[in-house]
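Section 5.1 Outputs to date
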Amino acid sequence: MTLFRHFGNKKGIVEAAIDKYAFVDLLANTFEQKIIWDLEQDLKMLAKEYQLLVEEKKPLILLSFREAAEFPELDELLSFIPQKFKQILEDYFDQMIQKKKLKKVDPSVIATNFIFINIGYFFMNSRMNSITEKLSIENFVENNIDFFIQALN
C-alpha cells in the first residue's frame, strides 16, 4: 500500500506525522520513570530509548523533513521536537550539576552536543547503511555515548 493510498494526500501524511510525533512526550515520560541520577546509565538509557523511538517513526520523520517547506505546521513541529528534547536534557544536566554529579559546564552546550550525536547516528543509519551496518544501537551507545560521558568527567 502506498503512502497516499493509506493517508489520502500530503495533508493526511502531515496530520499523521503530527500525531506520531508525540514521541517526545513518550521520551520525557520514559526518562522520568527510568532516571536514576547516574550520568552514564541515564544517558545510555536515553540514547537507546531515543534511537528506538526514532527508528520506529523513521518513515514519517524522513518524509516530514522533505515536506516541511510545504507545510508550515510541520516545520513548526519539526523545530519543537529538538527544542523539547534539549529542554529535557538541559534540566537533567542542570540538576546533575546541582547534585555535584557533573562538573560545572553549560547545560545548553552539552545538551546540544548530545542531541547532535543522536540525530547524527539516526541520519547516518537512515542514509548510509553500509557505514552503520557494523554500528548497532548497542555499539553506538557503548562507544559514542561512553566517549561523550568521558568528556564530561
